[in-house]
């Protein structure tokens, strides 16, 4: 039995119908769920991965993408985690095309935020020379999730954050009325404020950000 088949069978045997409906409702009924909560899902995932480690290591991109195309959200989460866990520091330049597909497929905040930070962010740390090209293309896209992804990709960079780039992206999208963009601006600034609180405070006070963005950015300062 291959990895995906076994994982899917394990999830089916552990599905909780009483959890599935409220979990789907929380995600605006965009995806069906098995109803398996995070800790249990990760425990099952880890156990099955351990049995199929060679298969996963040799076929991470194919397995991750196939899981991400499954209808149940828990399997989609596992597809993302396969990539994050297996390909860190092992991306190739061409992977950006495929990362973009992850961002624009089955898109909602939960998947996009994880992909932005842990896949796109990791890829651009590995290939910093690609940052200008990727940022320009994603930030100019008509796809809101791509816009959000480049605002958020530096979430884990801390002192390595390019604050000038972050500021430019915040200002570029500052007039957006989309909730997810306004929230992303505030979140990205709030995260960097853990490293440089005064710099973030000054930027927020001097810029014409939407009220939600300002509120989120200054929340912990």
TrEMBL record:
Pfam families: DNA_alkylation (PF08713). SUPFAM superfamilies: ARM repeat (SSF48371). Coiled coil: none annotated. This is DNA alkylation repair protein. It comes from Flavobacterium keumense. The lineage of its organism: Bacteria, Pseudomonadati, Bacteroidota, Flavobacteriia, Flavobacteriales.
């Amino acid at each position: 039995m291959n990895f995906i088949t076994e994982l899917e069978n394990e999830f089916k045997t552990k599905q909780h119908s009483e959890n599935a409906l409220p979990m789907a409702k929380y995600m605006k009924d965009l995806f069906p769920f098995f109803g398996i909560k995070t800790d249990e899902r990760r425990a099952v995932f880890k156990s099955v991965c351990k049995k199929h480690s060679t298969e996963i290591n040799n076929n991470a991109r194919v397995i991750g993408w196939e899981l991400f195309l499954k209808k149940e959200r828990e399997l989609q989460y596992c597809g993302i985690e396969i990539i994050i866990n297996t390909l860190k520091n092992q991306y190739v330049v061409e992977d950006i095309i495929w990362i973009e597909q992850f961002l624009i497929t089955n898109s909602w905040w939960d998947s996009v935020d994880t992909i932005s930070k842990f896949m796109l962010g990791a890829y651009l740390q590995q290939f910093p020379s690609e940052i200008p090209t990727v940022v320009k293309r994603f930030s100019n896209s008509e796809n809101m999730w791509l816009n959000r992804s480049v605002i958020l990709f530096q979430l884990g960079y801390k002192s390595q954050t390019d604050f000038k780039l972050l500021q430019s992206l915040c200002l570029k999208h500052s007039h957006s009325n989309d909730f997810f963009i306004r929230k992303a601006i505030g979140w990205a600034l709030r995260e960097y404020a853990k490293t440089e609180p005064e710099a973030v405070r000054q930027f927020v006070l001097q810029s014409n950000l939407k009220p939600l963005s300002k509120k989120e950015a200054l929340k912990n300062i």
